[in-house]
Specification:
binds adenosine-5'-diphosphate-glucose; Rossmann fold; alpha/beta; 2 domains; nine-stranded mixed sheet; single chain
Length: 451
């Protein structure tokens, strides 16, 4: 069977040398299977800059673009995707802007995606749709497909509890849209159950992990997406990166280095983490002068007001912590607002004694997996509200809203003997191995074929 992947974004970056594959879980997971199947990737994107991207990458993968007019893009992407679905699914209800115009643009854009997919689809091709930008697409395809179309869908962010989802005035239409798929995948059991309950609330018969829609069934399964373990395994062994990591640790000028890495997004809990670190320095003064926190924040969605406001708040708290604790011989906190290469990130991972990954909600959180897989004796402190917590039982789990709890766990992680830390990491690595990104796509598509 041929394969069509549909996602809001293409997994390529435009460089002076042409298109190159983007780094990241999704590109790693999907490009190899797409290449093997000589498939097509359908995405919105390049049209915005006015330039037309080449239709092929390297090898047999084709890129098809869906042109969306600028104003509609604002409503579909900046509006409904990022100011309605994103905050709602991460339980930020007060940030959810229920504007009808946003939904109308979302609907139009999903229709445009459907047109494009129908143009490129050939009998026998499977269609694999990605994420919350395209919830309506499976149904549009199902209604219009000339033959039997096999449709898979993966939802990368949390599916909230049914009571929260039903806040959306368009909730039923969105669920109906998604139920056009044969197979719907989530990162965790919790999200899959939430979805099934939501579908049941809208009156769809649900039994044994599947939902009946007229005369067909949509199956719901848990397929956690992990990282490229081959690649991160190499980075963990690379002697040059080891050398750099020792240099970085030296630069920190403290016995212990604590690390945070996130897109600058309010769901990632960066502000709360900084407050917890401040609390930690207040409550455990014995660590002053001995620890240093490196917080990396990748610029993200800078066109959305809430993200600019978050940046301002983070800058302010960083300034306050430095103002209160900085000494001539000790820098308690360094804040890096930039994007790094995978090698550079791995250097940070290997230098860090503790990774403090405390999103307020997160579909999975690949940074937690990358750290645990790359570090050789570090401790992973992880939010129990990240999807990854359902899989990474040997992490030091915390409630990211509980500043005292985070401070206490940080102290505990820092005091954990090396033997126990290594033992926990060894178990985590085995679990992460089982979630490998490349096998994720294969597992999902095999299940779709069987559906
Ligand atoms: P994201 O919200 O983007 O993904 P995450 O899973 O943590 O979150 O992935 C972030 C990726 O970006 C990681 O691979 C990381 O290495 C990289 N990255 C972060 N900061 C960087 C920096 N400064 N420079 C370079 N690279 C950086 C969404 C969902 C997640 C879900 C994934 C995959 O929100 O919950 O895990 O999709 O399904």
């Amino acid at each position: 069977m041929g394969l069509i992947i549909v996602a809001n974004r293409a997994p390529f970056r435009l460089t002076p040398e042409g298109l190159v594959p983007a780094v990241g879980g999704l590109a790693t997971a999907l490009l190899p299977v797409l290449e093997a199947k000589e498939g097509v990737w359908v995405a919105a994107g390049e049209w915005k800059e006015g330039g037309k991207a080449p239709a092929t990458l390297k090898g047999p993968v084709r890129l098809e673009q869906v042109p969306i007019p600028e104003r509609e893009w604002q409503g579909y992407y900046g509006g409904f995707s990022n100011r309605v679905l994103w905050p709602l699914c991460h339980y930020f209800l007060e940030r959810t802007e229920l504007k009808r115009e946003f939904y109308q643009d979302y609907l139009r854009a999903n229709r445009r995606f459907a047109e494009k997919v129908l143009q490129v689809w050939r009998e026998g091709d499977a269609v694999f749709v990605q994420d919350y930008h395209l919830l309506l697409l499976p149904r549009f395809l199902r209604e219009r497909a000339p033959g039997r179309m096999r449709i898979g869908f993966f939802y990368h962010i949390p599916w909230p509890s049914s009571g929260v989802f039903r806040i959306l005035p368009w909730g039923r239409a969105l669920v109906e849209g998604l139920l056009g798929a044969d197979l719907i995948g989530f990162h965790t059991q919790e999200y899959a159950e939430n979805f099934l309950r939501t579908a049941a609330h809208y009156g769809f018969p649900v039994e044994e992990g599947r939902v009946r829609v007229g005369d067909r069934w949509a199956r719901v399964e848990v397929h956690p997406l992990g990282i490229d373990t081959g690649r991160f395994g190499e980075l963990a062994q690379d002697p040059h990166i080891g050398l750099q990591a020792r240099g970085l640790k030296h630069l920190a000028g403290a016995d212990r280095l604590i690390l945070g890495v996130d897109r600058l997004d309010y769901t990632k809990g960066i502000l709360e983490r900084l407050l917890a670190y401040e609390r930690f320095l207040q409550s455990y003064p014995q660590w002053r002068g001995r620890v240093s926190l490196f917080q990396i924040a990748t610029p993200s969605r800078t066109g959305v007001g809430a993200y600019r406001e978050l940046k301002r708040l983070v800058d302010e708290v960083v300034g306050r912590i430095l103002g209160n604790f900085l000494r001539e011989d000790w820098v308690p906190l360094r804040y890096f607002y930039q994007t790094y290469t995978q090698e550079e990130l791995a250097t940070f991972y290997r230098a860090a004694d503790v990774a403090l990954i405390t999103p307020l909600r997160d579909g999975m959180n690949l940074v937690a997996l990358e750290y645990a897989y790359t570090s050789d004796s570090g401790a992973l402190v992880l939010s129990n509200l990240a999807g990854a917590a359902e899989h990474l039982k040997e992490a030091f789990l915390v409630n990211p809203y509980d500043l005292d709890g985070v401070a206490r766990t940080l102290d505990r992680a820092l005091r954990t003997p090396e033997g126990e830390r290594r033992e926990r990491l060894a178990r985590l690595k085995r679990r992460i191995q089982a979630l490998d990104a490349k096998s994720w796509a294969e597992r999902f598509l095999a299940s779709l074929e069987a559906a």
